[in-house]
Amino acid sequence: MSERKESVYREMMVESSLLEVPRNTYQRGLNPERVKRIINDFDERIANEPRISLRNGHYYVFDGQHIVAARIGRNAGVDLPVRCKVYSGLTDKEEARLFANQAGHSATPGIGLKLRALVYSGDPEACLFLEKTEELGLKVDYGQHKGKYRLACIAAALDEFRKLGPEKYQEALRLILEGWDGDPDSLRAETVTSVCRFVDLYFGEYDRKRVVKRFRSVDPLKIYREGRAIGENMPGYKKYLLQVVTIYNGSSKKAALPVKF
């Protein structure tokens, strides 16, 4: 998208009844509690203008739906003219990208909603992440709700996808799925991150069949519980990675991998 499209707009009054929120594609749902907070703290001097895309004769809100709802709420629930920044020439894909990249005074979308919007916009990295994850039979849950074969730890998984690349990322998730059959406790951020780190660090050294067999022999929460018990004695993901290596090694001296971190 050109810089011109992102920066050129007209400030104009638009009747709130004409403003549409495209929730079926990229927008988030309305948060009534946030609307109440805006109403209670409202100050006209610093209120932001909603950002609107005028497309095909419709006024689509891609940033500021809560401000619109708050203004209506302050007007006893009756529609009213709202001063808006109105952009022309945007496609729905470009709107989705702008929504995903909100910053400043806007409430940044959660990672699930941001990914959903980026996928809708056609962002190459987001689309590839979704494709490679769902190829494995996992459902990327934009609402970040845990469930069997549902990936809720989107931020952690996307971070590992970026670090490892598609091949190692898929290998790590396959090991988790084959070991614990999509159990929600095996798809926690700590487990996904630590198994990805294990694959990256020991790629070409571990016995794949042994990994799956050893995973099947333990509760998937073992990595989280025993890693957390270490506390501050080991920083970050390493305390969980240590659990993966310990599970893999078991009591075997012959098959044991060295601790390389």
N-to-C SSE string, H for helix and E for strand: HEEHEEHEHHHEEHHHHHH
List the domain count as a whole number.
Answer: 2
Q: What is the distance, rounded to the nearest whole angstrom, between the alpha carbons of the first and last residues?
A: 43 Å
Quick one: overall form? Answer: elongated
Percent of residues in beta strands?
Answer: 5-15%
Can you give the mean pLDDT? Answer: 93
What is the annotated CATH architecture of the largest domain?
Alpha-Beta Complex
Report the CATH topology name of the largest domain: Conserved hypothetical protein from pyrococcus furiosus pfu- 392566-001, ParB domain
What is the number of helical segments per DSSP (H or I, 4+ residues)?
A: 12
Let me know the largest β-sheet: 5 strands, mixed
Specify the helix fraction band.
40-55%
Q: Identify the CATH class of the largest domain.
A: Alpha Beta
Number of DSSP E strands? 7
What do these coordinates show?
This protein is an alpha/beta fold. It has two domains: 3-107, Conserved hypothetical protein from pyrococcus furiosus pfu- 392566-001, ParB domain (Alpha-Beta Complex); 153-249, no CATH class. The protein has helices spanning 3-7, 32-40, 65-74, 92-100, 111-121, 124-134, 154-164, 166-180, 189-202, 208-216, 222-230, 238-249; strands spanning 10-15, 19-20, 51-55, 58-63, 81-88, 139-140, 150-151. The strands form two sheets. The chain has a five-stranded mixed sheet. Strands 6-7 form a two-stranded parallel ribbon. Strand 3 (51-55) and strand 4 form a beta hairpin. Helix 4 runs antiparallel to helix 5 and helix 11 packs across helix 12. The protein is elongated and about 75 Å long.
